[in-house]
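fwd from M.: "can u put these together and see what the complex looks like"

so here's what she sent:
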Amino acid sequence: MKTFTYERARSPAEAAAAASRIPSAKFIAGGTNLLDLMKLEIEQPAHLIDVNGLALDKIEATPEGGLRIGALVRNTDLASDTRVRRDHGVLSRALLAGASGQLRNAATTAGNLLQRTRCPYFYDTNQPCNKRQPGSGCSAIGGFSRSHAVVGASEACIATHPSDMAVAMRTLDATVETVAPTGTTRRIPIADFHRLPGNTPHLETTLAQGELITAVTLPRPVGGTHIYHKVRDRASYAFALISVAAIVQKDGSGRVALGGVAHKPWRVEATEAQLPRGAQAAARQLLDGAKLTPQNEFKLSLVERTLGAVLTQAKG
Amino acid sequence: MDRTSDITISRRNLLTAGAASAGAVALPKGAIAQASTPGTTTPAGSVPTAKVSLQVNGATRALELDTRTTLLDTLREHLHLTGPKKGCDHGQCGACTVIVDGRRINSCLSLAVMNEGRSVTTIEGLGKPGALHPMQAAFVKHDGYQCGYCTPGQICSAVAMLGEIQAGVPSHASTDLTAPPQATVVEFRERMSGNICRCGAYSNIIDAVTEIAGRRA
């Protein structure tokens, strides 16, 4: 690990200002992803701004009937919240399908959104990777690509986003709240928060330098049956090959987002009209234009079948 | 006498040298471990350090550490509590599991400086020979290990895991999200998935956990 200086921020605006002053600074909260990457020298911050002392660890009701989840709410606490379990079950389910008990106790809501890819070439500093070292090339294209993206990828990067939580938040139309180094706040719809790789796969979100996530808000509950179905190589404690987050209403209408298929949680609202016609119709439109490798083409049928299982489960 | 203690001494001397040179630099307001402020240079050979105070197994331990020091390395290398093990050092195996403020975490993925003032319990703090924690005794009784390397992490994890069930934390194995979670083998297996045992003592570990959970119920 490279050396770094360290400070504890006392307010969100102060944290953001410090991060904008020092370009190589990083915020640290749970540290479960950042420290892993720092040990491998994939991340090399010269300065860490510890945000754990900021009072951003509450889940509060909003006047609109939704929830405002503080950026520092730990994954365990978010998954355990009575209101989340009752009204936004897909979010609880997604969180509980991710990582381990130990990691969920440390990992935060904001940190989960900012997780970096688990592409093995991103992790292997001996290999070219446009995300880790812009312009060096993509080793996954033409390489071992079983876990990689099938939609929304580019010639520069076919990595996937590893989060389960973010996939559920996409179905819930969550909003990310931030504070900028100037002190101004803004609200970013989760659909616009993560980027597709394009020619700049090292840019993963639409956050500006120094901008700090303060909360994630959920709109009022939408009812329906909430399901998160994750398919992975082990029964527990593994990243998704693919996952389906779904909220299905009694009339068969609903919302679906996919994990493990793209550089961001994958939801195409226009295709959701196909849901009452069944999994095949919906999945085909959802993954329209998929670019497959011989190693990841299984994801197409896996999504279709998993969505089928989800829709059957939703019918009860 | 042996090479290991030579290495330990030289590392300690190195840290002391680092601490001394870091302390000679004026710190900006709000900064805890700034060896250099933007625009200044770090004296050659020094590393940024920070003062950290932890409650470890009930005792206050004050240290000055390289900011890079993980909680795991603090416990093992500086406080000589070698119960927590360095398996993967990347949060994938659970051998480093300790209990911080009542919650189990991977101590390899947390910096010591992030745990200022917190209460840390390692396997050494759960029980001792002659006065074992019930979970330690159950692991012995049910032969919940083979090589024993993962065992301190397994036991810390199991103790905190039963606390999580009691506190109503749901799991991936919980069939009804809105009901209190049940202390069942299916739940234990899922909840203990962050602790890998390469010897494969899982069935005996589950027997030990089941016995203790049954006593609690």
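replying to her w this: Chain B touches chain A through 50 residues (CB under 8 Å).
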